[in-house]
Amino acid sequence: MDEKRVTGEINKAAGQVQGAVGDLTGDTKTQVEGRARETQGTAENLAGQAKDAIGQTVDRLQDAIDKGGERLPGAEEVYRQGNEAVRRYTKAAPLGTLLVAAGIGYFVGWLIHARR
Question: Which strand (E) or helix (H) includes residue 27?
């Protein structure tokens, strides 16, 4: 668990207490400061949750890549060869590459708008 989640919850709780004290005493400044601290704590907590989620996603992707490498040991070499072939074609015929990319973009746009 990311430490921002913990500090965020602490700040949120402290802000709630500070806001409640401000409510009881009628001190507007304390109320506003409490609400601001509570909001800051909520934001910190959300940032920590996002960081945790990203870390978990990266771990899952790394696991999937590792498993894919185990199942298809020659896949990386095939990818490199395909990449090199595309690179050679792009250098040899940049206009053709541009036209193919434009055609793919047009087709994808057509698919998106045809569904509506």
Answer: none
Within 8 A by CB and 6+ apart from 115, the residues are: none
Count CB neighbours of 25 within 10 A.
Answer: 10
Which H or E run contains 26? none
Measured from the Cβ of residue 33, the count of other Cβ atoms closer than 10 Å reads 16
- What is the count of structural domains for the chain? 2
For the full predicted model, state whether its pTM sits above 0.70.
Answer: no
Looking at the structure, do residues 15 and 63 belong to the same domain, yes or no? yes
pLDDT digits (tens, 9 = 90+) for 27-57: 999 999 999 999 999 999 999 899 889 989 9
